[in-house]
Input
Amino acid sequence: MKKIIFLIFIFVFISCKKEQERPQPDESPMVAKSETEILKERDFPLKESSKVEILSYEDRMRWDKKITKKDNKYNKDLVVDYKLNFDSTKVKERVLLSSELKTELIGLLSQDSCKVENLPRDCYMPRHMIVFRDQKNRIIGYKELCLSCKGYRQSKNLENYNGFCFTQMEDLFKKAGIKYFDEDYE
Output
């Protein structure tokens, strides 16, 4: 009987020792990552684009007549078959970004410090568009901006990149050489 009790005691002692040797999970609180950190972890979808252009034009809502019956000027596809789906002769300026400005633009598009909800349609008077092109000069992504009301439209591959500051975007446009802004179109 003493041997059985002794064996049970040894068995329990060994079992407890093995349980203590197991690594304990880290009990430090989890730190939530900001949306910017998450966006930087995943690759910006168009960072390998061949060219990035900034276009400026007068308020597209006033002159864009290229609208199908199923579309209206607020929801039409702005790029169809890798080309602009509006009268490109209305474009006042086209500025090709240098690699430094392209990197700065991708940084702006990847941040979330100025997240603004898209405002109601009646304010939307877009005058600028960022166009991403591939090696064949086809448009593979875009973001159209209304700097005055902080509204935007974009291609599907840029839908999650809307936390940029509009003032920083305007500064980048000016740095790139864009001269046409809201006050210039009256």
Remarks:
- Residues 18-33 have pLDDT under 50 and may be disordered.
- The longest helix spans residues 2-21.
- Residues 100 and 106 are 10 Å apart (CA to CA).
- The beta strands are 51-57, 79-80, 83-84, 91-96, 128-133, 139-146, 151-154.
